[in-house]
Automatic annotation (TrEMBL):
Protein name: OB-fold domain-containing protein
Classification via Pfam families: OB_ChsH2_C, zf-ChsH2
Signal peptide extent: none
ChsH2 rubredoxin-like zinc ribbon domain mapped to chain residues: 13-45
Domain ChsH2 C-terminal OB-fold, residue spans: 47-106
InterPro entries reported for this sequence: ChsH2_C, ChsH2_Znr, NA-bd_OB-fold, Thioester_dehydratase-like
Naturally occurring in which organism (per UniProt): Comamonas aquatica
SUPFAM superfamilies for the chain: Nucleic acid-binding proteins (SSF50249)
Length: 124
C-alpha cells in the first residue's frame, strides 16, 4: 500500500527529514504534499530535499499570555525552490521579524511529531 503524500511527508518529518515534492513533467516544486501536480496534473511527484533557505513573505505576531508560552509568530515563507509554506520564525524577538528577511528551515520534534520551523539565516 502506498502512503498518501501527506502521510509520507509527516513520517519523514518525524524522522527529522524535510521533504518537498518536485514534478519532473513541468519542473515545478510542489508544496503542500499532494498526489497530483497542481501545475500540470501529472502524477508521480518525486520527493526532494529542499535547500531549506527562504524569504519571509508575511509575518504576524500572535499575542499569548506568558504562562501559555508568550507571544509567537506565524510566517509565510517562500522557499528558494518557489513554494510557500506556513511556519514560524524562531530565535527572534517579535519586533525583529520582517518581511523579506532570509531564513533557514530546521526540523524540530514537538510532542513526538516533526515540525518545520525557521531560524534567521546567517548573514554571509
Ligand atoms: Zn507538473
Amino acid at each position: 500500500m502506498q502512503l498518501s503524500a501527506q502521510t509520507h511527508y509527516q513520517a519523514e518529518l518525524d524522522a527529522g527529514r524535510f521533504g518537498i515534492q518536485h514534478c519532473t513533467a513541468c519542473n515545478h516544486h510542489v508544496f503542500t504534499p499532494r498526489e497530483l501536480c497542481p501545475h500540470c496534473g501529472a502524477a508521480g511527484l518525486k520527493w526532494v530535499r529542499p535547500a531549506g533557505t527562504g524569504t519571509v513573505y508575511s509575518y504576524t505576531t500572535i499575542s499569548r499570555k506568558a504562562e501559555a508560552g508568550g507571544d509567537y509568530n506565524v510566517a509565510l515563507i517562500d522557499l528558494d525552490e518557489g513554494v510557500r509554506m506556513m511556519s514560524r520564525v524562531e530565535g527572534i524577538a517579535p519586533e525583529q521579524g520582517q518581511i523579506g528577511m532570509r531564513v533557514k528551515a530546521q526540523v524540530i520534534q514537538h510532542n513526538g511529531k516533526g515540525l518545520v520551523v525557521f531560524q534567521p539565516a546567517q548573514k554571509a
